[in-house]
Amino acid sequence: MAEVEEQVRHPSEETTDESEEEDSEEEPKLKYERLSNGMTEILQNDAASCMTVHDKFLALGTHFGKVFLLDIQGNITQKFEISSVKINQISLDESGEHVGICSEDGKVQVFGLYTREGFHENFDCPIKVVALHPQFTRSNYKQFVTGGNKLLLYERNWLNRWKTSVLHEGEGTITNIKWRANLIAWANNVGVKIYDISTKQRITNVLRDNVSLRPDMYPCSLCWKDNTTLIVGWGSSIKICVVKERNPTEMRDLPSRYVEIVSAFETEFFICGLAPLADQLVTLFFVKENSDQMDEELCARPRLDIIQPLPESCEEISSDALTVRNFQDNECRDYRLEHSEGESLFYIISPKDIVVAKERDQDDHIDWLVQKKKYEEALMAAEISFKNIKRHDVQKIGMEYINHLVNTRDYDSAARKCQKVLGKNMELWENEVYRFKTIGQLKAISQYLPRGDLRLRPAIYEMILHEFLKTDYEGFATLIREWPGDLYNNMAIVQAVTDHLKRDPTNSTLLTTLAELYTYDQRYDRALEIYLRLRHKDVYQLIHKHNLFSSIEDKIVLLMDFDKEKAVDMLLDNEDKISIDKVVEELADRPELLHVYLHKLFKRDHHKGQKYHERQIGLYAEYDRPNLLPFLRDSTHCPLEKALEICQQRNFVEETVFLLSRMGNCRRALQMIMEELADVDKAIEFAKDQDDAELWDDLISYSIDKPPFITGLLNNIGTHVDPILLIRRIKEGMEIPNLRDSLVKILHDYNLQILLREGCKKILVADSLSLLQKMHRTQMRGVRVDEENICESCHATILPSDMAKTFNVVVFHCRHMFHKECLPSSGTIPGLQFCNICSAKRRGPGSGILEMKK
């Protein structure tokens, strides 16, 4: 198909125009092929004069008066000897069972292809056209029309005889007829008419525009798009006519239908044929061009254009010049365009050639993309339409794309496409790898090799690793990290790396890679040695991941030297695997590291390393004095005498003061603060913490001859010691800094205390009064007494059964009730009684509140 199409569209004789078409980036809409087989034999000895297309077959008329029926591929199925002169027109009904034929010698035949019964007539003038009713086979009237000097309608009457009616005459030769449903359109020398067979009315007359053109040389082209839309092409003018129903109120004596021209425009060339394509038009043009040598016009290749009609113009969608045989000798009347409505097939008929045009399918689209080297788009189109393509294979297109990329030296893109194109085909993968090796581009394909479910032979991966090892250590290391260790023979690669390290033993990249290879091979101790030697950050991850704690018991110092924080955290998190005692033993010769470990251990748990607390005192004193005092405060296992000895040796005053106070020697501690630190504020703070009157007295005694200390005491002891005790002991005449301010502060503090006491008193009185009032309201409430209540003494019902009798009841605030006679005597205070049950409370809620008498 592609070869035929090239021959049809691009002849060898053309140069400039042809190259422009070949270089065009716009994809053609149609593809072309010559109708061959039996058609070739017919046209060698005869010439085509007309052809009619049915969905199932073709009917060809020749200049020698023969009619051939052919299949869609051009093979002859039947042959009819109709006349000795040119066949002018062949007409088929929709079923394809009846055919109408007319010839230049006036013969008209209408017959069934399977019965041969029908109409046979000879006229005394040439009959140019014949048209069967679309439903000729099914119709009882068997209607058809012929066109010569007159337009004649033939139909069978009820006696099975043919009846003839003249539909039109007097305007020259009828050159074209198209029958659709109930509408017959025909063209003569004046214009185009439409006749409604159902109403027997002519409904329009569309005049031709260019009357200077000879109708016989530039015949009218007619085509029904649907049952109401007629397309008229004449000369270089195209009109689209729509048959519409007339409003009944406007009819009067007018036909029930009328025609509206919805589009009319001029074209560049002369029209030979028309066919609809969706909402577009396929147009066959006859082209003339000026000769360079002579002043006359020559016949050029005909053009098949797809145009989009607009109301007053058209838009060209595509245009193809067709190289039909003997196009130089053909005139406009020699070309015809027929189409098959069932399929989008368009037949270009010329005397010595018939070309079939059809819409391009997805295979053709891919062909064009590949031809234009648009492989990416071709591959995408094939993937999207892989169920519909017939001539292409997605993988083959992909391979062509890869070959193209390799040829253009875009090796990285070619390698990237291998992933998508080669898929799981191991043979193709290995072929591509060897091809990349041949062109020296193994590195390009390395990162795209399969490493999942599909895997190539280990030798392939080893070949690439050896290539990287020769030229690119970093790339080699990257592949080792990215590739699973079971893709290749690990031992072979380890040996290769070892050989390279002999030449460059300090290369950190190779050493790191060798450690990773040892890890893949589960030789973790060898990997650990290299990581520690390189001080590599992954050493801790390796230990955790593969549980190598037994291997690092003798390497704790190395780990600590590398990163103290990470090492200590790891050791403390895995005490069950490396004991505290083992770590302390290993770090015994490195006290600064031992201190870091024990300090973090103490922070986590004050009791776990208690047996090392005595040792920690010296470590804190030597390496971390700021944390010594917090340690002494928090530790309950630290020997105080040993700590005091170390602190006194190193003259650590604050720590010594804390230890003396911890051991109960507060006076000595206070003395050190005053003598060694000379810090009255710290001394006052110390005295406040101890809250000992004797300690305050010692502090005053020590400070009495030191005016700055007296000032500090006056400012701070007001809330702990009576300031009068200090003021009375100050010697007369002693000059004390800021004495006035200190005394004012003391008075201010005293006033503040008085105000606080008064405020508290007022609050207390207000609360007491509120509670008293609440109690009074509560006690003033009545108490319900009914038959269910009993005497708490005799346990009889509190109310007598005979309420008419006199009775006395006493009810207490505690809600206990008694008969009066059941209560003991009132005692020493007349009229005052107490609840026997609540008598434990003196004057409590059991005092009498109510006496009932009756």
From TrEMBL:
Subcellular localization: Cytoplasm, Cytosol; Early endosome membrane; Endosome membrane; Late endosome membrane
Start-end of each CHCR repeat: 568-712
Topology relative to the membrane: Peripheral membrane protein
GO molecular function: zinc ion binding
Positions with biased composition (Acidic residues): 14-26
Biased composition (Basic and acidic residues): 1-13
GO cellular component, one term: clathrin-coated vesicle
Similarity-based family: Belongs to the VPS41 family.
Descriptive protein name: Vacuolar protein sorting-associated protein 41 homolog
Lineage: Eukaryota, Metazoa, Chordata, Craniata, Vertebrata
